[in-house]
Amino acid sequence: MPYIVMAQCTALPGQEDALQSRIADLASAVRVEAGNEGFEVFQRPATERGWTMIERYRDREAFDVHCDQPHTKAFNEALKDLVEGGASDVTELSLACQPNDAAPGVRGIDHVGMTVPDMDAASDFLARAFGARTLYDVLPADADPMQGDEVEHQLGLPSGARIEHMRLMRIGASANIEMFRIANADQADAAGLADYGLQHIALYVDDMDTAARRLTEAGGTLLSDPHPLAGVEGGERNSGVYARAPWGALIELISSPDGVDYPVDCPMPRWKPQPNT
What we know:
Layout (H helix, E strand, L loop, with lengths): L2 E8 L5 H15 L5 E9 L5 E8 L2 H8 L2 H10 L9 E5 L12 E10 L3 H12 L2 E7 L6 E2 L1 H7 L6 E9 L5 E8 L16 E6 L2 H10 L3 E2 L4 E2 L10 E6 L5 E6 L22
Parallel strand pairs: 5-9, 10-14
Antiparallel strand pairs: 1-3, 1-4, 2-3, 5-10, 6-8, 7-8, 8-9, 11-13, 12-13, 13-14
Helix pairs in contact: 1-3
């Protein structure tokens, strides 16, 4: 279950800017840890020079891994000269009064997918129009394409089609956007308002088997059994599966409890819905 802590500290007089800089650096580093699910920073108006950090981790083990990270140790060492008492005050928190706004084990939309004719042009448009940021390439343009019978079966591709480039982008505090460049297939124009669905939507789930069963019981159809995720998203417990809704729209179930092996130049982590517990 999620492990949540609140860390509070008060800057020594004259150390306000130094502490703020240290906290900003720590937040950037922690947010790309595989086991971190949220790191929020607040100033406390009622306490002069006071700061509060709410940190959420996948579980207690992930928090322990966080505590052993070089950036965490460096931050705690710096606090000796920056804050009252020489350290932050850390309190464990327990979830309470959570909303019941989804089926048990289902968190929410993880990403939406779209197929584009030119990956760089599409990325540039999203960046310029909305401030979207490229996180990483799931399948780089210079990698071997994803193709063959198994890929066609898992993803519902027509015979002979190949995925030549996949990229993940993010716009603010919202769902991720997964883009595909696909070759050797007949491709229709983008769907209009009256057409069914986007390319696909993806829901993050905690229990893949239970979520897949609920989907089929509701009338959906799995395209394959759940399968491991690829590339930087790979992990022993990470998995996904594509399905079709009764009207034919593609829906993906995805789960990545082992996190993502983020590239060093990844500007921020992919957004992940919080548990509905």
